[in-house]
Design brief:
Blueprint lengths: L1 E8 L8 H9 L8 E6 L3 E7 L12 E2 L7 E9 L2 H10 L9 H12 L9 E9 L4 E6 L8 E5 L2 E5 L2 H4 L8 E3 H8 L13 E3 L4 E6 L2 E6 L12 H18 L7 E4 L4 H18 L6 E7 L2 H4 L11 H11 L2 E7 L1 H5 L1 H11 L7 H14 L4 E3 L4 H5 L8 H5 L10 H4 L11 H14 L9 H30 L4 E3 L5 H9 L2 H4 L7 H6 L6 H4 L12 H14 L3 H6 L2 H9 L7 H20 L2 E3 L1
Helix pairs in contact: 2-3, 6-7, 6-18, 7-9, 11-25, 12-17, 22-25
GO biological process, one term: asparagine biosynthetic process
Family: Belongs to the asparagine synthetase family.
EC number: 6.3.5.4
Length: about 600
Amino acid sequence: MCGITGWASFHHDARTQAPVIEAMTATLTPRGPDAGGVWLGERAAIGHRRLAVIDLTGGVQPMTDRPDRPTIVLSYSGEVYNHHELRAELRGRGHVFRTRSDTEVVLRAYAEWGEDLADHLEGMFAFAVWDERAQRLLLVRDRLGVKPLFWAAVDGGLAFASEPKALFAHPEIRPRVDADGLREAYSLLFNTGPTVWSGVREVEPGGLLVLDRDGIRERRYWQLAAGLFEDNQDTAVERIRDLVGTAARSQLEADVPLCSLLSGGIDSTVLTALLADELRLREGPAARIRSYAVDYSDQAEQFTGDVLRTGHDTPYATEAGAFIGTDHSTVVLDPRALLDPEHRKAVVVARDSPIGVGDMDTSLYLLFGEIRKHSTVALSGEAADEVFGGYPWFHSSKALTAATFPWLLVTGDEAAMPLNPELDLRMGEFRQDTYRSALAAVPHRDDETPAEHRQREMQHLSLTRWLRQLLHRKDRLSMAQGLEVRVPYCDHRLVEYAFATPWALKSFDGREKSLLRAASTGLAPESVLWRPKNHYPATHHPEYNRGLQDLARDALSSEQVRALADEARIKPCLDTPPDRLEWGHRLRLERVVDLALWLDHHRPELAF
């Protein structure tokens, strides 16, 4: 896992701009604390920061196809889990390898297949290839968009980076926000492509971009399809167990300490159990995987259920760890740590965005910091709810009949920070237009019923939009601590199979995630297997709420914050007694605080 950046331009000689590529690369040091390097050619500059995970001595980047007069230069972030199989295939085609890193497999795969190499890769990745012979830049992002990749136009070409902050170190790219950017940030629709920053775009998940003298060309090499499904229930359960197991086992390779995130829900428990079993097979019956959960000092006494949370996680995580046989630890956080301005600023800097989820982001950042003291790689259960239909909106008649994105029925305007009405952003119109476009992208089959197609729409929206912000959150906050997080449920073969599976099979027992539960018999305690969906925990301590209100009052002392925020709708949240502050109103205050930190650190040019 690493950070990548650089640019290609046909109007300027990049060899004279070493300080620029070095500055861009330096902004990504938290993503790659172990090493860094740059490569300069006439038409391209490539930078890299490395978090060493596989082949600690051999995977130095930027990597070239030969040490003298290279024709291919690669800057790569992520993990290709089938690199052993690809290495064998490429050797059979005559390629000679100097290292055992998956980075070199990507390099040689480009030499063999060109831009079609993306079809051969299994894993999470974002990379850039500069081809000296063809004078061509290739950007590629993994199928689900686990790893980020941003780009912006420069004179005669484009610049790219793992994070926008690296782009802003280029003299031609400014941190500018216009009305479109505010709509993208605060609509909570999670478009892929445009960002909060004017002129900065993302390479689409499952997409690639080519720059040459003819201009820029983008295409998708992978997307969800409504394929034919012929398996019965028993076969589907076995297939799911095989696919989840294969994904978990393939992602266990590392030359550094590895652990699992264990929340006490079915997704993380099943994943941890599979990893623990595989580790014992490889290293012997005494081998134990480390597992981690997060909790707050007030939860045991003051847990309060809300729209997203039905119970306290820690007892379930402890029971699951004992059942599986892990070395389990619970990182307990104090509300004061969540209020620390330096911690909150670090989160906003990592995100490059004013939009987050407040204390849940800060706690995740602090959790990753504690984990990084012992492990460099963690595996997480992200995406299981999207893949198997775990969210309430899959089972709610209100959500199924609503003409809007289903999560807005939970978050909506009550959770989003209200923006100043004088900005006239026409947010409702923007949401409606975006929703229509999102539904138009959903594949369908001629033989499916309207009810079946509606469930397919819900899953497509969840996988292509809701999951996007979860993966962004997990990537940014983990990489800010120099921790690589892998997400086996994002394996594209598992996603493809589950997306093609009829809804009746996904919910055959009348509950959420029926297929995963049936496939997981024996892997988790019964209490965990049948536990209702529970979201990431949040503190309920009145002292946290009181401190948050104080931070929000300070934030509103800024003229820029007041110009963007609707004070009239925020004031009731400030006047509510701390022990009665509802979740949605608290999140509104969180976003006021984050907005102030974002404006102070990034100092964007506001163009409205």
